[in-house]
Design a protein that fits this description.
Blueprint lengths: L2 H15 L1 E13 L5 E14 L3 E5 L6 H9 L6 E6 L2 E2 L9 E4 L11 H11 L4 H14 L15 H12 L6 E5 L7 H16 L3 E5 L3 H7 L2 E6 L2 E7 H5 L6 E5 L10 H6 L3 E6 L5 H14 L18 E4 L1
Parallel strand pairs: 3-8, 3-9, 6-7, 7-8, 11-13
Antiparallel strand pairs: 1-2, 1-4, 4-5, 9-10, 11-12
Length: 321
Amino acid sequence: MSEATSAETAGAETASSEIVVQTRALSKVYRDFWGRQKVRALKSLDLEVRKGEVFGLLGPNGSGKTTTIKLLLGLLFPTEGEALLFGKDSSDVSKNERLGYLPEESYLYRFLNAEETLDFYGRLFDMPADVREQRIDELIKMVGLDRARKRQLQEYSKGMTRRIGLAQALINNPELILLDEPTSGLDPIGTREMKDMILRLKAEGKTVVMCSHLLADVQDVCDRIAILHQGELKELGRVDTLLTVADVTQLRAKGLTGECQQELRDVIARHHGELLEMNNPTTTLEDLFLKIVRDSEARPGRRASIEGADDNKTGGVATAD
């Protein structure tokens, strides 16, 4: 084998190892008692989630988000296609050692306290007692429940329950974390702390896949998103790219007079203004999401058409501080 061929093979293997989650033509059909098709929940979904990124799965109710998560977990079997985690089929239970999951509704034993809850789940992973004890202390402090570590979970608020649920999902120090509505039930401070924890997990090299109806939360933490509607993938890409309004140019300048605010680069330079920023303004994830859903309803079976995607268009909007 030549050196060039060896390099190409090594590069392909490295790229493959970076893919943590992959779906290929993944489909799921729910059938009735007689085996007749009741609903097609997911249609030929192709996704790739790479190591170290925060990936958002968005869609209205009934769009296939929960079905996708359950297929990845191996709780459902696909009708067609396949779901791979760490290069293994989702039905392979060995993947669970590297996986953490926070469901939309945490199913925890309400008569246990926080320490007992995490100790129980740590034992399921056969963690040594000393490692388990240290991990429990770290997680309780991380999710902000240090003062409530001895209280039974039945006394917890919804927000506190979400926190201990996240700690439970992280007890085995997983490489991949699946989060279903992670900020559900949290107040604004708790929501901010949850998002900070997600970003902290990313900084530690973890891969996070999250479902959420709170689009602002997704916009704050996700690197890439997939938008589903009626079981079909309608849009996929980086958040910053999808939200960029490509046919409008926005200028931010400092120290300009009112006259200079209407001018472009050469005028700014001529009047000794300081150009702070020149880029494409962005829309909001909420506006993008609603547009894709409405476009999907108007043109079923087709990918959404995003206006302003032509990078060759130009326009100008100038603002000054």
